[in-house]
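Entry type: protein chain
Record version: 2
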Amino acid sequence: MARDGGAVPMMCAMTLLAALLGGGLDDPEAIRVGDTAMSGPELLGAAAVVADQIAERPSEGPVAVLAEPTARTLVAMVGGLLAGVPVVPVPPDVGPGERAHVLADSGASLWIGERPPEITLPVRKVDLNRRSGDPAREVPHDGPALVLYTSGTTGAPKGVLLSKAAMGAGLDGLFDAWGWTADDTLAHGLPLFHVHGLVLGVFGALRVGSPLVHVGRPKPASYAAAVREQGATLLFGVPTIWSRVAADPDAAAALRPARLLVSGSAPLPVRVFEQLREHTGQAPVERYGMSETMITVAVRADGERRPGWVGVPVAGVETRLASTDEETPQDGRVELMPHDGESIGELQVRGPGLFEGYLGRPDATAETWTRDGWFRTGDAAVLDEGGYHRIVGRRSVDLIKTGGYRVGAGEIETALLEHAGISEAAVVGEPDDDLGQRLVAHVVLAGEPVDPEEVIAFVADRLSAHKRPREVRVVDALPRNAMGKVQKARLST
């Protein structure tokens, strides 16, 4: 379904630095990362030095940036954009094996940042005080600007190729959806090696001209300070962060002057949604996207805010809900699911903000597209009559076939989190000779022990009987990645 969504701000699609290159963000503290503050011209001048260093590298190829939450990382990323070469953000906490895979797979020719012991690439460090003798300029480039590595569920991480045009289109859709302008001040503490923290949380500010505060390690007190001290109006976080904020009423109350609280990267528990509304005076807005698509669906700032629902397509994006039947007709036609708020299908999208493919993986790239040109997200979702989306989870692990029924793990997890004794929950399907798959709930307790049978009955009272877990396992913690998403493949059987 398409949305007209109103006019998208008119910006140059081929640069992510529209406001920065246009002389905006000239306040000395317009850009703050931790304890370091700089103006837009200072950021641009230091980044021009990095661009010069990239131009002088001994061989062609992408540049790898150590994506620590520092001002040096911002300078290095902007320097790569100015130089017109693909930038590979490397997580600072990644292990040597995965780091070696990323560097080899991407063909990186230069490492920017502190040198890990095993790095053999030429290395350049960022000096925040150096300035280029030439005016900052952006080399024309219409190929990939970022290579983001996604973990997936099987195999080694794949490099997602994102162009400036795709990222610009995605950001412009969000400017429209959230009313995001240069009058806002953005604050967040998200990693700088994912779409949420880097593209939205850095390039978005540099494109629209809103001052930026990266709080470093995300803590409730840090978000509260960003509002009190820097006047932050737009706050980004993942559910783990918002859960901690909601559990700290004083810090949450300090966010009341903010205009918009945005949650993404994983489902926000209903309990946290309601606590934030109570403590901050406003409900958060949720959004949906992935590395390959940017943000395709979002609750608009002026739209209805419902817990568990991620809104409508942003301007320029179309979505559809396809049948999850394993067999596709020979003629390639896709059976579409009804928009009734209940029927589960695979979410498919198309629009200008999609990736160019997986680096060096033409077969994997081809598998993600339908014959008629839609990107298969691999996520199971439902749509209601008004066009609102609810994400059930990954089709591969969260769409569970049990006793002849298709069940979404997310719906059961939401019910489990309504139980006062449970603070976290993850539901998986495990092989079962009778049911095909049986529903198993892994839960983290909020305090006192719970009776597994009582928990099962609790879910059965709220959902259909076939959606109740057949087993409840208590764990100390759920395995999560840097963005707070539960890694269900690591849940032991």
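Comment: The first strand starts at residue 31 and ends at 33.
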